[in-house]
Amino acid sequence: xxxxxxxxxxxxxxxxxxxxxxxxxxxxxxxxxxxxxxxxxxxxxxxxxxxxxxxxxxxxxxxxxxxxxxxxxxxxxxxxxxxxxxxxxxxxxxxxxxxxxxxxxxxxxxxxxxxxxxxxxxxxxxxxxxxxxxxxxxxxxxxxxxxxxxxxxxxxxxxxxxxxxxxxxxxxxxxxxxxxxxxxxxxxxxxxxxxxxx
Length: 198
What we know:
alpha+beta, single chain, globular
């Protein structure tokens, strides 16, 4: 599997000013991976994207929130594996550790996965995870940046891996498990904005 496309796309995103994807009726259509996403927010979020040869990243940025969608092409493709529950779990878990977490650690070396679970969303078998990003949220309180929690939903049809993620600040007044439920609910809502191949 080729992982470099996603890294290349993330680096390119900072300098990207024109969209590679297409927007029509407040829906973003990706040039890679055959998927679309309703653009969140009112007014609609600012949309930016960047693509390498095997992957890409789309960001929907609102005043206080952002939603990120990553797509990565599998080479070779593995559609039959993704139909087998045991193999699918192995692919999802391996991708989280070898690709997603390692990418996050480039910016936040102390990042760690604090919750993960295999679930279904609207009939799709997906993998949900929450990663703790120490001092890496967009929120500052008492002059100090709060910890961030990255909620991510992974889905694959065996041709591409799709990851929809959000970043939520630490909420000290919420019990930890309640906060995890809140992060997962936000990530699930973000995932439902997109239409992916079966």
